[in-house]
């Protein structure tokens, strides 16, 4: 639990993973897709995700050099769990907003 | 995604939720079960989880007063997702440790 939350436990990492769910992307494409993240923070997050084997960074020796990021199988396996989390959040969000008191689960 | 990670996105909250998965607990019991958390941090986390409708705090007017924490239906609904996250982490942990290079998922 400690470990998996440490991997995911920032605002940005799930957003980066989600942005790569269906396609590879170059740094500039990712940065444009995510919008409000700084280049410095995006660079740091990409390095950490690569170190955690969630992303693969591929460098192509072209001129100008091209770098592409994609999800590894481990990263791909996170997607359905993240979608469950979004579903969970959405399904309770309106309920919470309505001021309906939360009920205890007994037993 | 922002919102659900903001709710979960600390080291401690998933551990607190998990500790309450099968039973109510008083503050002292939670503190003992979790071990390394400070009382100040545990107090703050419990307040935030209550505000997010994940925990219910029940006060019993006894002498000495008794306070019990339990999961709401929203909190209970998080448990299977958290278990999936643990399973995900465990299934790739040994693989990563072996130094096996992560492979890209193409297509």
UniProtKB/TrEMBL annotation, chains A, B:
Ranges for domain HTH hxlR-type: 1-97
Matching Gene3D superfamilies: Winged helix-like DNA-binding domain superfamily/Winged helix DNA-binding domain (1.10.10.10)
Classification via Pfam families: HxlR (PF01638)
Coiled coil, from the record: none
Keyword terms: DNA-binding, Transcription, Transcription regulation
Gene Ontology terms, MF aspect: DNA binding
PANTHER family per record: TRANSCRIPTIONAL REGULATOR, TRANSCRIPTIONAL REGULATOR, MARR FAMILY
Name under which the protein is recorded: Transcriptional regulator
């Amino acid at each position: 639990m400690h470990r998996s939350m440490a991997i995911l436990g920032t605002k940005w990492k799930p957003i980066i993973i989600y942005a790569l769910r269906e396609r590879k992307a170059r740094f500039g494409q990712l940065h444009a897709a995510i919008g409000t993240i700084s280049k410095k923070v995006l660079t740091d997050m990409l390095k950490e995700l690569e170190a955690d084997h969630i992303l693969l960074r591929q460098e192509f020796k072209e001129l100008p050099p091209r770098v592409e990021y994609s999800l590894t199988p481990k990263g791909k396996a996170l997607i359905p769990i993240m979608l469950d989390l979004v579903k969970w959040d959405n399904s309770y969000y309106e309920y919470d907003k309505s001021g309906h008191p939360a009920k205890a689960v007994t037993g």
